[in-house]
Specification:
Blueprint (H helix, E strand, L loop, with lengths): L3 E6 L5 H12 L3 E7 L5 H13 L5 E3 L8 H13 L5 E3 L6 H14 L5 E3 L7 H8 L13 E3 L8 H13 L5 E3 L6 H14 L5 E3 L7 H13 L6 E3 L7 H13 L3 H13 L17 H4 L20 E4 L12 E2 L1
Parallel strand pairs: 1-2, 1-10, 2-3, 3-4, 4-5, 5-6, 6-7, 7-8, 8-9
Antiparallel strand pairs: 10-11
Helix pairs in contact: 1-2, 2-3, 3-4, 4-5, 5-6, 6-7, 7-8, 8-9
Length: 332
């Protein structure tokens, strides 16, 4: 049985539909499971979690938009992640986790052997949660950590919390994508982040859309890309009080430093020796053409990354609702 992608959005799931999902998980027939914005009973959520725990094929799990709706479900998910060994990408965007939820999830997330992409945007997090997240960005020479982290729209995090994240980013040996959009950061925090970007040897994408920045921040980033070597390739500054001229100067510098051949060689070297015992590995970040990449919004940042683009992957789209039967469309 070839792995499938099951994607359902905004539906009320019946017990029968959940049973089909659970059986597929336990039979190692699912590579990507997305029940984004779906409604299901606590009992059925527990069944899905047990299926996740037993799956050896699941690589991406999308529970965005309130599926993990309380501390009880958070603990069930934590139990599942403690037993799962295959998951690489977890999306919890728009879940009311609070700091208590991150405390419940932390041990499972921090010790998961394969997790590299985590979306905790709009999860009502504060400084306590951010301190735990920083532990998932180990310094150089330590264990592998996250490569992609989304913390969009968590206004409860203070400047002290963001300072701690900046330090962790500066010393992270793995992080390549950091989405902080729609947080009230302001120029002082952006200054700290610029130092982190300059120090990082891996960070390629930084999203600061709608974060309350002004030309002061833009001047700092401009000075950084003009005068210091950096791995940064994408800087999102839209919806800030930043002049078009400064944005263009930064764009020109980011695009002008690009050498596709060197980047390809660097990516190949970076991944050649990592995790050789896995069945498959996430390829390097897929880049857009330089003319449209720098300073542009990352439109698909809340969608599963293109890390499962294998010719053998099936796609199963499930729809549900009153009076409708389970519909499955399978594509090679």
């Amino acid at each position: 049985m070839l792995p499938a992608s099951i994607q359902i959005t905004g539906e009320l799931l019946s017990a029968a539909e959940v049973q089909d999902i659970v059986e597929s998980l336990k039979e190692d027939g699912v590579r990507l499971l997305s029940v984004r914005g779906c409604q299901l009973s606590d009992r059925d959520f527990g069944r899905v979690c047990r299926g996740v725990a037993e799956s050896h094929s699941l690589a991406q799990l999308n529970l965005n938009l309130g599926v993990v709706s309380g501390i009880g479900r958070t603990r069930q998910l934590a139990d599942a992640l403690r037993n799962n060994r295959s998951l690489q990408t977890l999306f919890l965007h728009g879940s009311p986790l609070l700091d208590a939820g991150l405390v419940a999830l932390n041990a499972a997330l921090a010790t998961h052997p394969a997790l590299v992409c985590l979306d905790l945007g709009d999860c009502m997090l504060g400084d306590e949660a951010l301190a735990l997240i920083c532990g998932m960005l180990p310094p150089d020479g330590a264990k592998s950590g996250l490569r992609e982290l989304t913390l969009s729209a968590n206004p409860g995090i203070s400047s002290k919390g963001w300072a701690r994240l900046s330090i962790a980013v500066a010393h992270s040996s793995q992080l390549r994508v950091l989405n902080l959009d729609y947080n009230p950061l302001g120029d002082p925090i952006a200054g700290m982040l610029s130092v982190a970007v300059a120090s990082s040897r891996t960070l390629e994408v930084l999203d600061l859309e709608g974060t309350g920045l002004t030309n002061q921040s833009a001047q700092v980033f401009l000075d950084m890309v003009q005068n210091f070597p950096t791995s940064l390739r994408v800087l999102v500054l839209v919806e800030n009080q930043i002049s078009l001229d400064l944005q263009q100067q930064i764009r020109d510098l980011l695009e002008g430093d690009e050498d596709p051949d060197q980047d390809q060689d660097r990516d190949q070297d970076q991944y050649q020796d990592q995790d050789q015992d896995r069945d498959w590995e996430a390829p390097p970040l897929q880049r857009r053409p330089a003319s449209s990449r720098a300073l542009q919004p990352i439109r698909d940042k809340y969608q599963p990354p293109n890390w499962l683009a294998h010719s053998s992957l099936h796609t199963v789209t499930l729809t549900s609702g009153l009076g409708e039967s389970l519909l499955a469309e399978t594509e090679m």
